[in-house]
Amino acid sequence: MKIGLIIAIDGTAASGKGTISKKIAQNYSVPHLDTGLLYRLVGYKVLQGVDPVSAASQLRADELKVLDLKTLRVSNAASEVAKNPAVRAHLLEFQRDFASKPGGAVLDGRDIGTVICPNAHIKFFITASPDIRAQRRYKELLGLGHSISFENVLREIQERDERDSNRKQSPMVPAVDAIKIDTSDMTINEVYESVSKIIDSKLEN
Ligand code: C5P
Questions:
Q1: Which of 33, 45, 109, 177 would give a disulfide with 50, using CB separation of 3.0 to 4.6 Å?
Q2: Other CB atoms closer than 10 Å to residue 22's CB: what's the count?
């Protein structure tokens, strides 16, 4: 089934937006772009000494599969490069191209509903308390074999929230027409259920 909808899923770090986006992509057969990976790849290159703007301008989709883009070091570098307007301008094109596919698309990030796809058919803004998000990310990173402390994960999440919300260029804010979901007391299945009800009702109308 081609749903032909553009679905924007913005939200805070480790809020569950990535998991929800993947489930939507799978169940509605739409392509999914985790836009955080674009910033992570640029951040990764910057840590290797590459200039951020040239890294963003030469971005290759196959490089998104580079391992260890999920480390705390790369997360931090990603949110640093994300403040740079020239980096954002290069990545904007890549994201809009992806969203223009005829069958629809789901994109998750920070500015999808506000800047990348302001005309998206459905917009969500997903968040949870910093403590809950840090617990989730901590478990995920442990599962990936990283050796980290909970305190470091929590601090990194709070620093990123602060930087992402307060930057001048495309700050992380819910679009005025976004449906806000606080997942602190919800399981992923509960979140998915409420999100898919909204998508289904949009498809019926
Ligand atoms: O979503 P994820 O946590 O992987 O994103 C990593 C960083 O990339 C974020 O903290 C944010 O600074 C940046 N980002 C952004 N705009 C997006 C997606 C991610 O600024 N659309």
A1: 45
A2: 14
Our answer on whether the CB atom of 13 is closer than 6 Å to any ligand 1 atom is: yes
pLDDT digits (tens, 9 = 90+) for 89-126: 999 999 999 999 888 999 999 999 999 999 999 999 99
Which ligand 1 atom lies nearest to the CA of residue 164? 12
What pLDDT shows up at residue 157? 95
CATH no. for 6-184:
3.40.50.300
Q: Residue 10: CB within 6 Å of ligand 1?
A: no
Nearest atom in ligand 1 to 112's CA: 21
User: Based on the number of CB atoms within 10 Å of its own CB, is 141 exposed (0-12), middle (13-18) or buried (19 or more)?
Assistant: buried
